[in-house]
Write a structure and sequence with these properties.
Order of helices and strands: HHHEEHH
Structural class: mainly alpha
Radius of gyration: 17 Å
Distance between the termini: 35 Å
Strand content: 5-15%
Length: 130
């Protein structure tokens, strides 16, 4: 995957997760916060994803004044590819490891990812640090 596809994958991942809103509707502002980037950077990323057909803007069903992001069919294809990538890398890197070491690494790495998600969720609940 190219760096552009990886960046796009993170954008699609956060939109799919419904990051930043209790209603699951993702705005550019919520995406910027989730990616920890300036809103103008998130806006450019979204514009590029829309231009390439991976995202679409829709009117919010909660607040008609707000524009929200939706993943398109081609966006889901790219998201699926993005989500498969870590597994492919794991298989390549650990192919010569004994099964016990692979299992232990997978267990610890899953714990690491879960802890990072918990920390990220806590940061979103408390707002940005000052």
């Amino acid at each position: 995957m190219s760096q552009n596809e990886i960046n796009r994958g993170w954008v699609l991942q956060l939109v799919d997760e419904g990051v930043g809103t209790s209603e699951g509707e993702v705005t550019v502002g919520a995406l910027a916060e989730g990616l920890d980037v300036d809103p103008s950077v998130a806006s450019r990323m979204v514009s590029s994803a829309i231009r390439d057909g991976h995202l679409a803007r829709r009117v919010s069903q909660v607040d008609g004044r707000r524009s929200v992001l939706r993943i398109t069919r081609s966006g889901y294809v790219l998201l699926h590819r993005f989500r498969r990538q870590p597994r492919a890398v794991f298989e390549t890197v650990t192919k010569d490891w004994p099964p016990g070491q692979r299992d232990e690494f997978a267990r610890l790495f899953t714990r690491y990812v879960d802890e990072m998600a918990r920390i990220r969720a806590g940061r979103q609940d408390t707002g940005p640090a000052e």
